[in-house]
Fold these 4 entries.
Entry 1:
Amino acid sequence: MSRKILELKNVSKIYGNLKALADINLSVNAGDWLSIMGPSGSGKTTMINIIGCMDTPSIGSVILDDIDISKENAASLTRIRRDKIGLIFQQFHLISYLTAVENVMVAQYYHSMPDEQEAMEALEKVGLADRARHLPAQLSGGEQQRVCIARALINSPEILLGDEPTGNLDEENEGIVVDIFRRLHDEGVTIIIVTHDPEVGDVAQRKIILEHGKIVDDIDQSATFGEALKLRHNN
Amino acid sequence: MASRHGSRRRMYMKMVSSSLIRRASRLIIAVLAIAIGATILSGLVTIYYDIPEQLGREFRSYGANLIILPRGEAKITRETLNSLRDLIGENKIVGMAPYRYQTVKINEQPYIIAGTDLSQAEKNSPFWYIEGSWGNSQETSRVMVGHEIAQTLNLKLGDTFTVQGVKYGQQAEASRQDLSAEENQKRDLARQNFAKKLIVQGIVSTGGAEEGFIFADVDMLDELIGDTFRADVIECSIVADAGELTNLSTKIEREIPELQPRAVRRLTQSQDIVLGKLQALVLLVTVVVLIITMISVYTTMMAMVAERRREIALKKALGAENKLVMSELLGEGVLLGFIGGTLGVFLGFEFALRVSLNVFGRGINFQWALIPATIAVFITITVLASIIPVRKVMDIHPAIVLKGE
């Protein structure tokens, strides 16, 4: 039985008269691969911001690795995010004046101590060792996203959190990134991905559908999980 | 632990320097603003410290500012003159001309011949208008006559005239009845009188008392009158302000009691007033330049923080605390200040040198202390001007900024 890494209890997020999230209950076990889907404005990003310690719920509690992050202040949230969350962005958000390996080392620098060898190993893991000394502008979109994944992984986070990680990629690079997620999942990394793309959503172990700030469906895809991956792989 | 800190420090330096080097085109304006500010500041400071020296020398063109008289009846000897020169110091002396005044007769009319060191007198009085040229210590029979004398005696350049007089310490004796007039003249010249034919080398016009004197080499005069060096007065042109001249006068009175120094207050006070006003002006311009540089750096840093909101948001999303991100931006400010300040020191010296050459016609000494001082000032200015923009980091929320498409 896997341990519970994340639990959202009756979480709501209210902006004035707008309820971005309404009474969300969700629990995620360590090693799970979860996709969160839903139309624009359904609350996906709000949810991922709360899970990623970049926002706090208006009501309810969020337990991340046994810490109630809904009660923490901004400085503590920064610390928790640094230690427990690896972030992947749709726009990659690499620092333009640092090389690929330096971009990975930045995350180490803010976490503990930069180690170039470890950063190189992380890049090797995403197949980019030979592009380590290139600046982001010299890398393709897919390569930039792989650097972003390497950066998210470098501090061995409890949860890898992706906000539309394949949103800016072509099909080929999308396949590469999904393949990396598969390998990470095999290694026991907990992955939570927000996506619009049904193909990316389908390859996850579990799929959450959000609408108007509420979970309208929570689909266990364990049965088809391997098949979907294989199908993707063959394509 | 040391390696851990070293590794973090290296990464910090890497981020700060890479940000500047790889974004050089965006930061060129900031560097230029700082460099121009530093150029003007270091240039003006160089001039500020050099103005008293430069202007002091300029004021020396208006004549001697220290007159030395003997105390009592005794005249000033060569030894005392040398002691005085040592006391004042060669580097402070623009000119030091001893004067010995001797009454002579030309065509049986009395005139005064001023024996002096002509080369030193020329340094003391560059404003004298000389028709012809100054005499020198090699051709001592070539002298300068005042415009008034030249007119009275109808002398022109190259004309000769004869000066006659009684030798130093001798009394005029009556002619002997048993000798002829010629024999009496020969006897007088040999025993008590002197006579010498001089050539007009230059005619002096000053609009002052100098036009009524004959100026000749002092050693020639001493020989002519049969005496050793004895000066009636020494005119000095010294590089010093009023305060320094007062101190120097006190020192001379204490060290060489037989001398009586008198500062020419009219000149020294004018010099101090002009200097004070010029230095105040330079100070004012310097303060204005510093303020303009601060405003320029402030706006550049504001633009930089606004332009890099996403990068800052990303760093915060990766777990960077506000103070760490602010320290990186301030580090960039320090580096900008260092580069701009360093450029400014050398450009500033070039600027000061050109100003000095054009205005004063003299070079200028490089002030080595200005290198660390200018760099430190501009690092401080850059950091101060960056504080408000850098504090904007605290207002950047990663969730809001990174969400933007």
Note: Chain A has a mean pLDDT of 90.
Entry 2:
Amino acid sequence: MTSCKEVSDLLSTSLDTRLPVSRRIGLRFHLLLCKMCSRYQQQLKFLHRAATMYTERAPRPGDAGVVLTADAAQRLTQKIRESR
Amino acid sequence: MTALSDPDNWVAEHGDYLYRYAMMRVRDPAVAEDLVQETFLAALKAQGSFSGKSSEKTWLVGILKHKLIDQVYRARNGMQVEDIALIADNFADRFDESGHWRAEIAQWSDPDLALEKDEFWRVFEACVERLPPKMARLFLLKEMDGLSGEELCKALDISTTNNVWVMLSRARLRLRDCLEANWFTGRGSGET
């Protein structure tokens, strides 16, 4: 049987690329029997979802350091004017 | 079909968004500002190629992505960590001799609720920042920019796509552990 150690990598890789059929069967069989790896799978999916949401999140006033400073905005505006 | 807005308004309209997008990956205000500037200047030159099929913002982000990949490629020589060591680090300790989890994988209570809290996103950001730099870049280029295995190999100078997948797996395990320690069991109070 596939070990939890191998399964942890297979679960992650299955988010990125299509696993060969033999690997997928081993994975599914392991997950039926292993509570810990099933939880790990849920958590990896959560992480994947969170990363996607993180990308789409618009900047908020509370996000210190992730909005342009007034000076930086000024510099950029200037550059654009010069290059037009 | 939509037309581009007046470039004089680009900074006010898209500046913060693009800057934040860049900051999440390069974590250096000066480098991020340069990338945003390069993006705007490239966009000025390429105005004629805007087809109006996507929004102005999406179009600008597309240009920024190319600038980011160039930047990662330029910076990669500064990253000397051996990929193999990075892959092995911390990992073996998590499993016993027969390959079982050593510590329990706990059930997280209501993870979806976390996604609605600003405090959670600060923990998430801090956890990504705590990853070794190469892993952080790999994770972000994959999850946020959707680069393929081959593109990731090239951008980060990793020898095989298999190593890319394994390194991503180890990055996710670290992130998972960090979120658990600092959010799901750490009462959401932040740093350890």
Note: Residues 4-83 of chain A form one domain.
Entry 3:
Amino acid sequence: MVYIITFLQIGIFILNLFQWSNMSKQKEVDNSNKYSILLPTYNEVQNLPIIIYLLVKQMNQSNYEYEIIVIDDGSPDGTLEAAEQLQKIYGKDKIILRPREKKLGLGTAYIHGIQHATGNFIIIMDADLSHHPKFIPAFIEKQQSKNYDVVSGTRYIGEGGVFGWDFKRKLVSRGANFLTQLLLRPGASDLTGSFRLYKKDVLEKLINSCVSKGYVFQMEMIIRARQCNYTVAEVPITFVDRVYGESKLGGSEIIQFARALLYLFATT
Amino acid sequence: MTKLQEWLAGLGILFAIWFHLITSKDHSTFANENYNVILYSPIVFVLIFGLYAASVVLYRVFTFNDCEEAAMELQKEIKEAKEELLKLGFKFKEMTN
């Protein structure tokens, strides 16, 4: 009995070793990089000015070349007008507006945003203040340390964490994460998080190979990254649940997650 | 090989070993002496794994960092951002809630 368990654990450990060894490739540091930050928005009129203020402050402080690309999906609350005001304040080279008529999904929003991105790296994050720009330098340093293809923010390890989640929300999150790690062995601890840094060409390729919609799209991206042998690193982040507006975790999110998990389990 | 195939292969091998041990005619003394243990071992294994999973998940729920400092810091920064943006000439839309 005990032997079987030990045997299985050793097996899983060896598989993980293979994944890790694939992840440590060559070292290469380049300071001529530019970072394009993608902010897909829908009804974020309260949050957008704050997040852009914090981004500009952080990026100027750390002296990285950057641009912020706002992709607004026809928000009725005036998000685009707020973005236009911000563009006047911070300049057209820093704030780029790529609005779309209506809500068309996250994957296509990224594609739409990257089309005019001039950076060689893309940072994606939520515009609702749950992701803080103060972590961006950690993403960049991590990427440069071993020339990683993807750096993913994680709430589940080290100093990472969440604010504003009750017991039930944490239980669902941890339970879903445990199941995903068991079934998919993705080589990353946070699959549904959406605070990440990608090499531009890697992001383009990954989006094109993804079929999921909604937030489970983020999970598929990391799984596809592993499938394509891209290197993935992680940095701990804190996730402060929506200050303005409502956060959602309903039955439909759980069903979406279960379907995506089974789909990836059977096909990758 | 997909993850599903890996799981099926792993479980298939374990099932084959188990099935052989409980049905084979020329039982070794080990299999004879521990027949009941072997017969019920899959159920025991599932139960133990269930307990392991439940305890790991609960442990991680209770040790999940509550980032109160980050939330407080953010509140301060929101205030700062609003003040600074007003100075830069930004017009905030009235909050409706």
Note: Chain B touches chain A through 38 residues (CB under 8 Å).
Entry 4:
Amino acid sequence: MVNYGGDEVSALVVDIGSSSIRAGYAGDDTPKAIVPTTYGFTEESPSANEDIKMSEANEGEETEKPRVNLYIGQNGPSLWRENMEVSNPMQNGLIVDFNPISPLISHCLNDVMRCNPSEHPVLVTEPAWNTQENRERMAEIMFEEFQVPAFYIANTGVLNAFAAGKGSALVIDIGQSAASVTPVVDGFVLRKGLQYSSLPQLVTAHARHLLINPTSRRPAIHLWPQQLIASKQPVDAGQNPKFELRSDRVAKTTASWKKWAEDREVDEWMQSVAGVVDQGWNEQFAHQRGPKHYEFPTGYNYYFNGIERHSVGEQFFTHSRQLVETNPNLPKHLPALISSALSACDPDLRQVLMGNVVLSGGGSQFPGLADRLANELTRSFPHVKIHAPGNPIERRYGGWLGGSILASLGTFHQLWISKEEWQEHGRAIVNQRCK
Amino acid sequence: MASGVGVNQECLSAYQELKLGKKSKYIIFGLSPDNTEVVVLKKSNSADYDEFLVDLPENECRWAVYDFEFEKEGGAGKRNKITFFSWSPDDAKIKQKMLFASSKDALRRSLVGIAAEVQGTAYDEVAHESVLDKVSRGA
């Protein structure tokens, strides 16, 4: 058995999301390291020494084993580099590519936090729909590569519920790539009620579509990122932008980097301008909200009116019939996720869950989303109570925070999987211990 | 998932007194100062529900067991239901909320014969009417 005396174990907590990896010391109220999960890489085939052609490097990926340079962290993908590709190991909240995971975690723990993971127990979080292979793989990486003395993997749904002080709750977690609704009952996830979809991706795609297509009152908007712009001149709102591209860079920019950089522009536009109307879609209401001004890196600036701004957020709640008919695999919107989650639960339980709704994740901070959700839910259920932490850190990093508190408890230490246990029992112990 | 917090033997004996001996009306549970054990904070035999509510502090978490007595509709006589309360007000410290939420199962499992459960974060959720509404269903 593991025996850690008292509260002296300074455990580390690692929460891996699609947009960022959060890492920090258990017991702290904010993560020490917040590192983008997206990373950049360039490949050099061993034969070519000066001029590298991308096509060559790609072909040689399996056979020649080209040298891969990773660019991770705050100065990773966001700095423009010649022929740098951009990739993300996550898909729908799950890790699908484990290769960059150890460099990413190592960057958080060794480079940013400057601590030695072999001296600290590590608690990692996982989404409720994580697979058994994935969690075992994570345990393996932690024990074998980072040589951690003890390990635990905890569910973000449960951690969010616990951090809100609830043993039973309906956790609505909206991240960058996935939105999920998780019924938690007495500290356990009710798997049959678990619902998730790639809704946030649809919302971003919608915003992108809105921007890059012309309307009757404005031209199509170029989403060139500032890294590719050499100079620009101020123009009046709505006028065509006057800017020069950095022609030396444009030709050596990869498609994946461009897509990533453009998505970031869309994201920034959404964060500053977009919103959702709180009482259900109504063009007049939306219009009354008034226009908001936004300037893109190209210098193009425009007053986006209330309808344009709020139609983006509306995608969280309703999808037009046309959209539904043309896309058979449309991700479920929030009300659909919630109602399917509830219909899988006992009627007795539904009331308890609706009285304890916990809103979490960065995507839930979309302006007006919490109010709209409250309005939608009160319409269909009698006793709805939404717990949405006002503190943005608590909201965005709810899962990390829950893990931080859990791992700091002196009494929690008997639950850690120790290195000795790992060596003795192997992978099987992960599922046995971390329920 | 659980916090690993243990339950003091005294909690069980206090509960037995309430359940079998009917010596007390309600029990308030909390955590020991070092957060390792669930302990009894108060036993009371006051029948006044408001007095019970006073024992649920505004910004601290508690658990409680209350021997809820009510008149069944249609004059079918009195019923008693032992009700378990998880009190976790919104204004409590986040660490405490986490501790109480993750330790509840340990206490709850050791108390046999609980008929109803109430999870409360604000006073309206533990008010007499809301609890009555809950326990009287299916009574």
Note: The first strand of chain B starts at residue 6 and ends at 7.
